[in-house]
Amino acid sequence: MMNAFKNTLLGGALLLAAVAAQATPVYVGSWDLYNAGGPNWADFTTPTYTGQEVAALMFGGTASDYAISTTGTDPGLIDNMAWLDQIYIGVAMFGESYRVDSDNNGIYDVSGDTSAWVHDNGCCNQYINYAFRITNQVPEPVSVALLATGLLGLGWSRRKSG
What's the pLDDT tens digit per position in 106-128? Predict the structure, then answer.
């Protein structure tokens, strides 16, 4: 009897923790790879930014705060991909945290280096990266209290009937 009560309470506590820890993506903006306002590739000063790093640069926070998508503003369609330019190669889609920095100097200056913030091969608004800030969804106190009360009642009724 007591074990059933404890198991019910433990299960309820785990459920509450899972609800409290849910991450919610919120669309914050987008940028076109070619028209992002980044440096021109020929300056050889453009950083080898990942998609997430560009989002942090443009919208604040840190790279890990963001999910990037190439599919649009719908959070349900986030693909965790970003359009990146590759010096002397062209534009391609890679993972949102992908980077190539061939000579490890942080600069887009060697064939194959990538950056999600450069004025190079892309054009015509066809390589758009959409940024979503990931926020932890904290349930309102009333909802948590109702759920906890229900779980306590369920545990108590199981204890009495057992």
Answer: 999 999 999 998 888 877 778 99
